[in-house]
Amino acid sequence: MRSTRMRFFVAIFSMAIPLAGLSADDSSGDSSVIREIQAYVEAFNAEDAAKVESMWAENATHMDHELNQRTDGRAAIMADIAAVFDLPEPVTLSGSVDNVRMVTDSVASIDGKINVTVGDFEPTTNKFSAILTKQDEKWVIDSMEEMSVPSPVSAAAALSKLDWLIGSWQDASGEMRVRCSVKRAIGGSFLVRSFEASADDEAVAQSTQVIGWDPRLGQFRSWTFDADGSFGEGVWSENGGQWLIKSAQVLADGQTASGTFVMTPQDSDHFAIELIGRTIEGELQPSSPEVTVSRVGSSDEADDSTTTTEPSSGQ
Fold first, then answer.
1. Which residues contact residue 293 at a Cβ distance below 8 angstroms, ignoring those fewer than 6 apart?
2. Which residue stretches of 98-177 are H helix?
3. Hey, which residues does 140 pair with through a beta bridge?
4. Dihedral sign from CA coordinates of 185, 213, 280, 294
5. Contact at 8 Å (CB) between 196 and 204?
6. Are 233 and 215 in contact (CB under 8 A)?
């Protein structure tokens, strides 16, 4: 039997459109698309097969990427939809439309997600992309693709991309020596980094940073706390072999600071780091020079009392 996910697509399609903040009352192209889809869902929920059929293009296609299954033509698609009307189990639909784009006056592209619950089974979630075309002043579904939504990656699994940071590090260039250690913590779902800068064997700055995976952003985030009372957060992104950490901080005196740390792994035992675009209260500050940080121990040798590598944005 063909995938039932395609059969449920149209109902959720029109139900979800208003969630995108679009109104069906104005005369814009996307609103006319919405009105047509709203009419479709009424026909679908009423199990009006003739009406539903009229709203698919004759040569429409459906592609299920998970099953690698393509359905060509309105007749074949309607055979699948008719099977939904005969299902003994109740079907619950929910979802959202993420984007409606008018390609031309007669072509619209729509992207979103659908959640399908059949009887007592667990709901399934899929992404869809559809193309609607205007034929004889009426919008019809020309093609639709469905893709499974990847299972959310666990925080611990996501952090494996930063495993190269685990261990003890030191930057001894210049007059100040900077040491840090990095360890997994809290069940392996976070990295904890501790930083200590010293001059003449006397600590002049200390901070602790926690790095975790944000499943909503799909990015790493970090939270930094300094011994002087300042604190900040950052969002990490990978770009061409470098890590960019866009940071914002509240300094001990209440001023705000921001900047982007650029971290460049060089090999398993060295990485370079610099701070660019640094501001305090919106005023641009000189960028910090790039420094090279060297590994001095493994994660097993890292000191529990210390864990960061970069200096504060406000320094």
1. 169, 170, 171, 178, 180, 270, 271, 272, 273, 309
2. 155-158
3. 133
4. positive
5. no
6. no
Render pLDDT for 206-246 as a digit per residue (tens, 0 to 9): 999 999 998 877 789 999 999 999 999 999 998 888 999 99
Q: How far apart are CA 158 and CA 58, in angstroms?
A: 45
Contact 57, 73 (CB under 8 A): no
CATH 3.10.450.50 is the classification of domain 4-148: yes
Q: Sorting pLDDT into bands at 50, 70 and 90, what band is 68?
A: confident
Amino acid identity at 214: D
Q: Which residue has the tokens 């790095």?
A: 211
Global model pTM greater than 0.70: no
Q: Give the bridge partners for 202, in sequence order.
A: 199
Give the domain ranges of the chain.
4-148, 155-301
Output Rg (C-alpha) for the chain, integer angstroms. 27
Give all strands (DSSP E) within the chain, no chain letters: 56-64, 69-72, 91-104, 107-118, 124-135, 138-148, 167-171, 177-185, 190-199, 202-214, 219-226, 231-239, 242-250, 256-267, 270-280, 283-284, 291-297
Question: Residue 6's pLDDT is what?
Answer: 44
155-301: CATH superfamily: Calycin beta-barrel core domain (2.40.128.20)
Strand partners, 127: 113, 147
Instruction: List, for residues 160-201, the tens digit of each pLDDT value.
Output: 999 999 999 998 666 778 899 999 998 899 999 999 988 877
- Distance between CA atoms of residues 213 and 158, nearest Å: 7
224 DSSP β-pair partners: 209, 232
Residues paired with 142 in a beta bridge:
none
